[in-house]
Amino acid sequence: MNRALSILRPTRFSFLLWLSFVAAVALSALAPDRYGTLRVSIIDQSSKLPTPARVELLDAKNEAFVAEDALAVGTDAGDRKTPWQGTLEQDKARLSKTVNNSNTGTKQFYSAGTFTASVPAGTYRLKAWKGPEYTAAARELTIEPNGSLELTIAMSRWINMPAQGWYGADDHLHISRPLKERDPLISKWMQAEDIHVANMLGFSHSRQLPGVYNTPQHAFGAPGGYQEGNHLLLSSQENPRTHLLGHAIVLGARSYLNFPDNYLLYGPVFEEARRQGALSGYAHYGFRMGAQFGLAIDLPGNNLNFIEILQFNDGIYDVWYDVLNAGFRLAPTAGTDYPAGDATRVSLPGRERFYTQVEGPLTPDNWLEGVRRGRTFATNGPMLEFRVNGKSMGAEIALSKPASVEIEGRVQFDPARDEVDRLEVVENGQVVRSVPRDGGAAEIRCRFQHTVQDSGWLALRAVGKKVGERRLFLPRYDFYTLPSLAHSAPIYVTRKKAPGRASQRGGRSSLQTWIARLDDLKARLSDDRLEGLVRGGPDGVNLEVLQKNRQSLLEAIERARRQYLRREYQ
Predict the structure, then answer these.
(1) Closest to 554 measured CA to CA, from 530, 531, 532, 521
(2) Is the domain of 300 the same as that of 431?
(3) What is the pTM of this model?
(4) Which of 161, 258, 279, 487 would bridge with 305, disulfide CB 3.0–4.6 Å?
(5) CA nearest 207: which of 156, 283, 258, 143?
(6) Given the DSSP bridges, would you call strands 306-311 and 279-282 parallel, antiparallel or unpaired?
């Protein structure tokens, strides 16, 4: 009996044998013959050439996989106490091959045009995107154990805006480019989102010494540009920027513009930008971080060119309409502020963008001139056409008396990504015609006669909702929807020998709004309230800066106030 039990009792040899068996089972589950290889070429349907794209590869359990040779992307946009210094390898070490898309809730990656992924055998869903002008490409596929699958994915356009002279841009990208050797890789990243003009914004703060501390650029002006075909990288800046007066943007300057001794006076920066042929404007809808107060001071100087109206999955036009109704002309732009935001609203580059009509080839100068002339529309997907009496966005129509004008509007969109509900014609901030979508059509058109009584402006906007994206809360929209939006630049109408827009009833109201903002800011700058304006954080202003700039700022407020009053009675 004892002998029988001894036979059943495990020996060291049998234990090792059992352990080897368990290890063999575990290894077999991970063995190469349980994996397969996926090789994908992404081509442009028209040219048949490889083209960059953003890719999502999900298995049957919705687990995401990233290609071994995915583009390494990302940035360092943190607030630095000293300018960045390092090697190319140190710069690349900050990057990642994985992209978290907060709008879909999935992990994705970028490809330069071909990629290889070693994945467990099974079924997969592959999807590729290339900006708003291309339809998304989708495939279902199976990877066999120890198998190899080669695919070609063709990206096809549903619209070709460059063929019509329109080029998409993101005016607000905080992507570090301290070394020019990274430009080709960053360009491929931007091409994957079909961004034709990518504006890289360096920035500083009021407490820092002169220099580009954050998201540095290796050069400004022509040396800081990089171009591959019809895709441009441009060095620009988001500076000055404070919680008190908002965030200013300068596009296309020949040098980094910064006057730290008078940091709260944005005007000198805008004046120098204009002298250099650059463009100046305000970010974040013209109201976040106190931008409405900065605008109130700087609008009368006539050195501003644009204002961002789309960002963070939202479109806010109120302040811009106040600008236009007061008789000033600012082109609408859009940008993502990548990588800013939070877990629910950070946008990938180009999610919000604007299109510019460019005369001649796409060059930095031609593009800047198109924006300067107001030939733009902002969008997160839909494409706009707008004409009044045959003239397009940014144009001016002169009338000798009240008259009827012909308005033509059109929005086109990809129904797989955008459900545009209606097309609206806006006159001086008020909707004068709303045209609903007809069934499942991929466009909405309008054409009608409209009587214009006084000087003012007309514009076109589209409103709808996104398709197939995670639904988040936005204060201005339905709890369950992400909006689909587009807004054109105005077409201005001027009645000869008649009062300007600012002198009319609606214009006077807007002028009084700007004057009230100046009065509010002046009161907040009083001696007994100054300490209450102090704020920490990246764009905060300390008491020393406030005290140093206070008198000059008060003088600028008074100067702007006088200019508004003169404008009211012109």
Answers:
(1) 521
(2) yes
(3) 0.91
(4) 279
(5) 258
(6) parallel
